Amino acid sequence: MAKEYQFNWKATVHPLLIQGSIFDKYEDVGTLSTGSAQMDSPLIDLNSFTRVDDLGFFLYWHCEGKDTQLIDLATVWEVRSGALPKDSRVLCEIERGGGSAGLPKDKADAIEDRLVWISHGTDLVNPNHLFLLSEDPEVAKTWRQALNEIIRGSRIKFVCSTTNLHKNWRRLCLATNERRKIPMKNIIRMFEAGKPEKMVQKCMSDLGLGGDKFIETLSNRSMMRKMRSLAMCGAKRKKEREELDVELFTFEKFLRLYHKICPRTDVQELFVKLSGQKEYLTRERIVTFLNEEQRDPRLNEILFPFFDIPRVQQLIAKYETDDKYIQDGKMSGDAFLRFLQSDENSSVFLDRIELHQDMDQPLGHYYINSSHNTYLTGRQYGGKSSSEIYRTVLLSGCRCIELDCWDGTGENKGEPIITHGKAMCTDVFFRDVLYQIRDTAFVRSEYPVILSFENHCSKSNQLKMAKYCMDIFGDMLLTRPFDDYPLEPGVVLPSPNKLKRKILIKNKRLKPEIEKHQLEQFLREGKLDEEEEQMESPEVTDDTASPQCMDDDSSGEEDPSVQSSSNVGWKCAVSSSSRPSGRRPSKSPRPSLDRCSTPLLISSAILLDRSLSTKAERASTARSSPKFSLRHAMSAKRRPAALTAAGAAAQQQITAAAPPAAICMQQSSSTASGGASSAASTPPGGLNENEKVMDEAHPELKEKNFISKLKPFGGKKQAALEMLEPFDRNDMRSFKVSKRNQDEDDGTGMPRSVSTKTKKKPALTKEEEERIFAEYNYTGATTNIHPLLSSLINYTHPVKFSGFDVADSNNLHFHMSSFSESTGLGYLKQSAPEFVNYNKRQLSRIYPKGARVDSSNFLPQIFWNAGCQMVSLNFQTPDVCMQLNQGKFEYNGCTGYLLKPDFMRRPDRTFDPFSESPVDGVIAATCSVRVISGQFICDRKVGTYVEVEMYGLPTDTIRKEHKTRIVPGNGLNPIYNESPFVFRKVVLPELAVLRFAVYDESGKQLGQRILPLDGLQAGYRHIGLRTEGNHAAGLATLFVHILLKTYVPDELSGLVDALADPRAYLSAQQKRQEALHNMGVEDSDIVEVPAGGKNNSGKGRGQLQKTNGSVGNLLNDNNVSTPRGGMGSGGGGDSAAPTTSRSHAGEVAVGGFKVEAVDVAELRKDKAFLKIQKKLAKDMEELKRKHTKQRESIQKQQQTNVDKLMTDNQRSQKRKDRGSGYGSRHQSLSGKESDPARIADNEKVRSLVSSQTNEWSNLTTRHEMEEFELKKQHIREEYEALKKLMKAAHDSQMALLKLRLDAESKDLRSTQTKKNLEDVKQINADKAFKTKQEKERRVKEQNDKNLKMFLEERKRLGMKANKHEEQLAKRHSDQFEALERECSKAIEQEEANYKEELLARAPGSVV
After folding, report:
1. Is 373 annotated as a binding residue?
2. Cα dihedral sign, 1352-1356-1361-1362
3. Which of 72-86, 370-384, 388-402, 971-985 has the lowest mean pLDDT?
4. Does 402 carry a binding-site annotation?
5. Which residues belong to the active site?
6. Rounded Cα gap, residues 1342 and 1348, in angstroms
7. Hey, where are the domains in the chain?
8. Beta pairing class for 128-133 and 1147-1150
C-alpha cells in the first residue's frame, strides 16, 4: 500500500509572538519618499501592538486609529539586532515620544539589545528594513530568536494550493482597518483581474457577506491636500465605505466565494470523465486513476507501491465531508478538487525538499551555489558596492562568494577595501564585509562557505586581511588542513559534512618552503624583509619572474584565480608549529600567533611597513603585477629626474635599517632596474604625492585622466567621455569618518560603509560602455603574498590551468582553477570528456566574461553538464539564468550543495556532455506536459500565455518553442487547455529541469517555476509559481497534466505496447479477426506472420530490404543449380590434370552477376597459348632433325669404318687362302659366308664394334637428355603462359566484381537517400507536429536515426563485399596453386618417363 508522506510545513511559533508585544516601530529612512505626504506622516509609530499568527504566516501590527499592517514572513530575509538610528528625527521621536521604548539616559547603551531589525522584501539587492524597539531587552531577544526560527524552518514556498488559499484568507482577515474590520475592497481586489466588481459583490451578498456601510468624514485640511483639483475646499464630505466583520468571514465561506466566482470547470470536466457521467468516484476508479494517471511508471514498485483500496479509503475519509459518501467509499467532486490541491498531490516529491543526499562525498562531487562579484548591486561598470548584499546572497543559499580586495585610497589609505577595480564602482570596507559574512554564513545552511579573494592589496593590507579573517571568523575559519586529509597527491577533498560550519579562503599561495621561511621570520621578528615588497625578489613569481618561488595565479581574464601547476611535486611543508591555528596557542618555541597578533606587534609591523614604503619599493611592487604596463606608464610621468637631498637621506635611513643581505639585493636590483630605486623623492613632511601613488597596488585608479588614455570616440561619444574625465576617484572612494558622515548615515544601524556623495554623471550608452571595456586593461591580482594570508589557504588553492594532462599527472585534488565563461566554452568545445574527468577530481569555477557590463548571466546548465562545481552568477540580476540557479539549489534542504550524478563522479565512467545517445546505465525518458489552466496569474486584467522549456544536455534543451495561446483579458483564471507539449527524448533526466513561465501579452514575465525532472511527479498537478527572484508568487498556480515514461523509439512502440498490455494487444487482434470474418474471410485463409512484419511496409523500406537481401546473399544466392560452396569451396582440388574441364567447378552469384571459375582447358585454347605451343613444337622438331643428322653422320662414319675393316679382313684372308692352296672362287666365297665365328674372333672387329657401340650409346643418351630437358622447359613455359592468362582472367573477374559491388553500393545509397527524403516529407506532412521547431527536431532525430542505420547497412555491405573479394581472391590463389601442382606433376611425370626409358634401353649400334 502506498504510504502517506507527512509534509510538515508548519513552523513552531513562540507563544510570546502569538500573544503579542508592544514596540515602537520605524522603518528605514532610505525607503521613505521625500514627498510632502510622507513628510507629514510620523517617522515612528509608538506603542504598536505586534503579533504573529499561530501558523507563522504573517507579522502584523496595529496602532490606535490606524489600519493594520503586516509583513509576509516568507519574504523576511533575517531578523537581527541593531544600533541607534542615525536619523536625528527618528532619534528625537524616540526620546520625546514617551512610548514603551522611550530612551532613558541610562539605557542608551542597550539600544542594540532592545532593537528587532527585520529585513524583508522580494528584492535581493534592496530589501526593506523594519525596526521594532522594545522596552525590555529580553522581549526583543525572544522575538529575534523566535522569528529566525520561523524563517529557518519554514517550507511555505512549497505548500499546496489549499494552504495558499488559507494563507490568503488569513491575510484578508488580518489586514483590517482602524475599526478592526475587513475592507470589502480588499476582497474585491482579489478577483478584479478577471471578474467585474458588481459580480463579486453579488456573489458576496448571496453568501451573506454583504458587509456594513461606514460613513467617513474627511477634514478640510485633508480635502485641500488630496482633492484640490475638485475645488471642494472648506466643506465636509461624507464617504461610504463597506466593511465586513472578521467573525463572519470564515475560511469555509471564503472557499465558497472563491469557487462561486471562479468555478473550476477544468477539474469538473476531468471528474466527469473519470466518473463516467456520475456524481461520485468509486474506490476502484480512484485506484485506477492514481495508479495509471498519477504515477510515474518508471518508479520501483517496492519503494513506491501502488495505491490499493485501503489507502484510497483513507484519502476519501480525509478529503470527503459527506459521511454517507465516506461510508460508501465514494468521493465527490469537491473532495476530488481538495485532493488535487493538497500536499499529497504535489508536483514534486516533497522529500526532495529536505536534506536527502549523501553529504559525505568529496567536495568536488557537488555542485556549489556560487556568486560572482558579490559586492555589486547593479552594473559591472560604474555600479554601487554594498556590504549588505553579502547577507542576502548568503541567506539565499549561496556558498561561494567573491571579494575583490584593493588598497584603500585617500584618507583611508592602508585599509583594505572591496570594489571592482578600474570600473568606477563604489567601495566598501573589507572588514565590514567580513562581519556580514560572519553573521549570516551559517544561518540557512551549515555547510562550508568559500571566500574567493581577488587580491590586489599590498603586503601591509594583506596582513590586515589575514588578521581580520582570524579575529572576526575565529574558529569558523579553516586555517589548516585536517590530519586525515593532508595536502598530498591523490588525497581526495574532505566532504561537506567534514567541513560543516567552516569558512575556506581561496587566494594565491606561496610555495611551501617560501611560506614556511617567511612565516617563521614574521612570527619571530614581527616583520618581513624590506626587499620582499620593495623589489621583485626571485622567491616570488608572476608571469614574468622565475617560477621557483610561487605558483602563478594570473589567468589574464577578469577573475585572476588560476595558478600555474607545473611545479607541484611537493607536500605541504608547514607543520602545526609554524601554521597558525585559529586562537589555539602554538607548541612551537617560536613566538605564537597570539603573540604576533597582539596590538603592539601588529602596529609595529604596520608602522615599519609604512616607514619603508619608498617610491622604489612601491615601483617594484607595481612591476611585480603580471600586467603593469598601464600602471607603470602612468606613474612614470611623476618620477623626478634626480634624487633630492631629502630623498637621499631617507634612502640612507632605509638602507641602514635593512639587513646586509637586503642591502646587497637592493643595490643589485637598483642596478638591474636602471636606477629606478634612486628616483624616490621624499619631502621633509613625509611621503610625497608620487609615493602615495606608488604605495598602492593599483595607482592607475588615482589617475584622473584614465578615460583620456582610451582611444577617442569622436562626436557625441567623445563629449560624453570628456564629461567623465574630471571624475575624482576620491569622490567615489570617500571613507572620511567624520561627524557629518555619521550624522548623514542611512539611519539603519548598519556597519559603516562608503559614502557615495558623487554628483550624478550623464549615463553612458551601451556602445560607449562596450568601447570603454574594450580598452579596459585588467591588472592581475598581486603575486606578492603575505605569508600569514598564504598560510590560511588549504583545500581551495587556486593555480593557473596548464592543461588536463598536467592536472591529471599532478593528481592534486586541492588545486582548483577558474575559467572565464569564454575560456570554459573553449575547453568544453575541444575536450569535453577531459573537462568532466577533471571536475571529478578538482574544483573548477566559471565566471561571466568581462563584456557583460550589464551584469547579465550566462546559462549555467552548460557548465553543470560538464560537472563544473562553482558556476558563479551575478545574483543581482534575476534573469532566466539566475532563476535556473535558484530553482535548482532550492532542493536538498537549500544547503547550497547538490550531489552530481553517479557517472560524473566515478573515475571508471566516461561521459560526453554533447552525447546524443543515452548514457550507460541511464534510461532516457519522455516527458509530456499539457497546460490546462491557471489561477490568480496576475492582478490585472491582461492577456496571458504559458511557455514550457526544458534545460539539460544540449540534445535535451528545448527553449522558446512550446507556448500556449494567449487568453485575452483574464489574469484570474485563464483556461488554456492546450494540446500536450512533448519532449520525446530526454537523454539524461537526472540533469534536466523543466521551466514553466507565464507572460502577459506584452511579453512581461508574471511568474515562473523550475522543476527538476528526476523529482517531478506525473499526473494532474497544481504548480505554484515563483517571482523572478524565486519567491512564492502568492496564489499564482498552473494546473497541468504531466506524463512521464521511458523513451521508446517509434519503430518499437507497437512491440512495447503489446508487451505492456498483452491482453489489449490480443483483443485488438481478435477484433480484427472478427471484422474479417464478418466480411467472409475464413480463419483458415489467414496465415500467421511474425509480429515485426509491419516493418517491411513502406516503399522505401521495401526497396532497401531488397537491396540488403541481395547484398546479404552475396556469397550464397544463385539463380542456377550450382554448388552452395561457390567459389569459396575448394576449387583447387579439381585441377589435378591439365586437360580436365572446369566449366562446372563452381560459380559465385553477386546479384545477377555470375562469377565462374577459370577453366584451364579454355585457357589452352587461347591464341597466345597456342602460339607458344607452336613455337615449342617447332623447337622440338628442330632438335629432332638435329639429332637425326647427327645419327646419320655417325651411322655413315661407322659403316665406312666397318666396310673398311671388312675389306681389310678380306684382303688378308685372300692372301692367306692363296698361300694355303684354295683354288676355286666358289669355295672361297662359301667359306666367307659360312664362317662368322671366325670374323667374330677377329680382334680388330671386336675392337671396332665395341667402340662404335659406345659411341652410339653416348649419342643416343645425349639426345634423349636434350629432348628431356627441352620437354621440361616446354612444360614450364606452357604453365608460365597459363599463369599469365589465368592472372589476366582473374584480374578481369575481380574488376568486374568490383564494378558490380560499386553498382550495388550506389543503388544502396540511392535507396537510402530516397528513403530519407520520404521520411522528411512524411514528417513535414504530419499534422501532429504543430511547430516548426518540433518538425525540425523530429527531422534531425530521424536523420540521425537513418544515418546510424545507413552507416550500419553500408558497413555491412562493405564487410560482405570484402568477404566476397577475399573468397574470390582465395579461389584465384587456389587455382594458381593447382596450376603449380599440375606443372610440378607434369615435370615429375616427364622425369619418371625419362628414367624408365633409361632403365629399359639396351646398348645398341648401327651394325
Report:
1. yes
2. positive
3. 72-86
4. yes
5. 372, 420
6. 10
7. 15-228, 262-345, 1057-1095, 1167-1219+1240-1400
8. unpaired
